[in-house]
Each structure stands twice: as C-alpha cells, then as structure tokens.
Amino acid sequence: MPTGRTTDGAADTAPEEEGPDPRFAALPGRPGKIIAVHLSYRSRADQRGRRPEAPSYFLKPSSSVAASPSTVERPPGTELLAFEGEVALVIGRPARHVTEQDAWSHVGWVTAADDLGLYDLRANDKGSNTRSKGRDGYTPVGPGLVDASTVDPAGLRVRTWVNGDLVQEDTTADLLFTLPQIVADLAQHLTLETGDVILTGTPAGSSVVVPGDVVEVEVDAPTAAGTPSSGRLVTTVVEGEGGFDPGLGSLPSVDDTQRAEAWGSREAAGLPAEDPGAEEAQGETAAGPGLDPDLRELLLQVPVAGLSQQLRQRGLDNVTIDGVRPLHPGAKLVGVARTLRFVPNREDLFRSHGGGYNAQKRVFDAVREGEVVVIEARGEAGSGTLGDILAIRAHANGAAGIVTDGGVRDHDAVAAVGIPVYSAGAHPAVLGRRHVPWDHDLTIACGGTTVQPGDILVGDADGVVVIPPGLAREVADAALAKESEDAWIAERVAEGHPVDGLFPMDAGWRARYDSWRHEQA
Hints:
By secondary structure, the protein is of the alpha+beta class. It is built from 14 helices and 28 strands. Helix 12 (411-417) links the parallel strand 22 and strand 23 (421-423). Helix 7 packs parallel to helix 13 and helix 11 packs parallel to helix 12. It is elongated. The chain starts with a strand and ends with a helix.
C-alpha cells in the first residue's frame, strides 16, 4: 500500500479501496436512476376506479435500494406503510429514441422489486412520492436476475406473500401498457442508461403492513423453458426510531382517502362504504359545536329514569343501552356519541384490521372534549374492548365517557383513570379473542339500541339513555319539571298521605300542587 509523508511529518496513508455496496448485490451496480410507473395493471386500475390513458412516472433515489433479505422501517407515529410487489426491469444497454419493437432488446435483466411507500407522507408531494417512497430501504430488489432475452415480456408473473399468505398474483399480460411500450416511452424523453431500473407497477392486492410482517416478492416466467425466476425477495418490517421535526417540513398525516388507497379499498381499511352526503354529514358532526353548555348543565340535573320516561311518552321506548353498568355509579355521564364498531373475530380479518393503527385506536385518538366513545361489541363480554391505555387517552382528550356493551380489561386501572365508563363487566382477555375493530363514525347498535354519531348520551347509576339531539332540550325540561312534581309528592307521602289519588295526582291534589307552585314562583 503506497504511503508518504505530509508536510507536517504525519503519515499519509492512502485509503483502502471499499468493497461493493451490499445494497446493490442483486444489480450490475448502483443504478443511475430508478423510474417507477404510477398505475399499470388493469386489476389495480379497476381497484382504484380509474384507468389512465397513458403511463405516468415518478423517480426514486438509488439510496432507497435494498438487497434480500432486508428490513424496512415504519417511522414512529405513522400507520400506512404499504407494499407493492413489482416486476423490475434492468437496462442492459443505453436506449434513446427507440421503437417499441426494438425496446425489449435494451432490457438486460428482469427481477423482483417491492415499491414500498408510506401513505402518511403523500399529501404534500402531489404525486412525486419523493418522501413517501424515497426513504432508505424502500426499494428492495432481487435476489436474482433473469436474462430478459430468454423471456416473453408479456409472459412474466409477479407474486407477493405477506407472512406466508399469497396476497398478489398477476401477469404482465394484464398490463394496460406493455413493457416494451413503457421502455420506448421513457426513451423518447430521456436516455435510459445501463443499470437503470424501471419499476413497472403493481397489480391489485397491495395493502398495509406493520412491524413484524414479512413480505416476499417473486418474479418468474411460467411458460418459459425452465421457468426462470428471480427467487424470493424477502423484507421484514420493523418499527423505526426517531420522529419528524415539525420545524423542517410537513408532518405525516392521513385521512380516509389515504387509508382506502393504502389498504386497497375502503372495506379493507375498515371504513364504511361511501355514501353520497355521508362525508358532509360526518364533517358536520366532527366540526360542529358539540353539546350546548346550558343543555349539558340541564341534563346533568336530570336522572336517566326521568329522561327515559319522557322519551317513552313521546313514542321512543327503545332508547336505553341495556346490559351495561357504571364503573363509577356516583358519576354522571353526559356527552355526544362518537361510534366504533367491532365485528366477530375472524383470524384473517384480525390480521388485516386488528394490528397497527386500527379503527379502535383511531377513535380513541380522535375523540374530542364532550364526546362519548360508544362501542358496538354485540353484547359479547368474553374479552376486553378497551383497557387502561385507551381510557387514559380518552380522558386526556377531554372525552365525556365511554360506553361499551362488551367487557373492560384492566378493570381497576380503568376505574382509577376517573372517566365515566359503562360496560358489560370485566374480562382479562385481549380484544382479539372475540372482536375485530372494523369501522367508526357510523350508525351502530350498542346494548340493543341504535346509536348514531351526534346522539346525546346520559348515564347514571340506573344506566344509559340515548336521546335524539332534536328532542334533548324538550325532554330535559319536561323531566326536570316532573322531578319537581315527584319531589312534592314524596313529601306528601312522607307526611302520611296515601298514594291513591296522589300518585298520580287526581284533580284535587293537582290543584293543591299548582297552588304550591304559584306560591314558590
């Protein structure tokens, strides 16, 4: 190794030559550029509800490349890391202004890729995907290369597995734009250089993965001699460290549109089916003024039994949430409903909807001051539907209470939080024993009663009643007046008067009561 002396006499040692970068082990070298197609498979386009007339593209940095096996980080505070199994083309010789017929001869190799993306970061990138798909490790490629000259560009197959389950399978015969067309289209705008990588889009089935999940992608040519294959590209999702500095740029944010696109559909994301006007109605509920403070004070004075009686007199007899008891019988619950629905546990659905930032966690994060989290658990008390952490979160947000017709886990710890909670009882098992958190902010059934977002709930030691918002003041005023009347009757009974004719009052007692009220006015 050559050495020398610097002018100050210190040893001058030439740096050792670095070895090949292991990230690019599956490629001829570090690619000069990585170009990805936005939407290319018919199955994916149908899933998204739109079919582009021509291909469109975005760039990914070569620093995002990873070999197989590798790990990929989901940053703290994010929820929508999605995989996309894809056929990757590696350019073998430069291409510039080539015909579609000649384009495939410029492709040297074919392999598998996973075009990972973090939907939490898409909002401000306007389709460039710079932050959402350009992160370190977000382009695993490999592990092996297939000679492109030995395969039909329309006969390639891509398959993806998550935790061993096949979740994507399609062939390039299903592409909206052929692989040679994509190469030729790109080559009329820029020079494709040797080693450049083209990610050719993903079929239907792309969805969200969470820490602990293992994603495998394989590209092969089933009809070619020997069925050449890339082998399985293996990536394990891990929880990242370090958050985002709000002073430097926009922070991760998600909405139901991003959730639906990341998961693949609204149903897969645990969201209710789209209903014209529903978004507007939910927006009004979420952004509305909440419960009027004067009405709240009035409802705090009225017992649930009195409200139930007044609702019955107005034809509403099915407005009590049955089978629930308070953790704090002396505490009063008054608030506006924010709803959450669980469905019966099914193992495959719990894997897709139970982990990560699921519907349950989203509701407890989003509940606002004066709202009541109301949970439909079908009266199934064989597991918890919340525990102390979620109770603390609701309490910290200023929630008015929690009502569930299922069980409560960590019963004593939840009680110690102090927030009013009504449940079907205590149970030590976790949610997944009986339930899958499915959707939220929609009409549900709790304790045999229909509850809609924005309904008013009032609870005391007798139970919980659901009041339509438009009737709340009327029934509260009437119930309070009836309480005053009943208190006067109770005093007369205590004086020794028989209840006959007094409860309810006949004309004579009614006249005496009206006279008493006039004197008190």
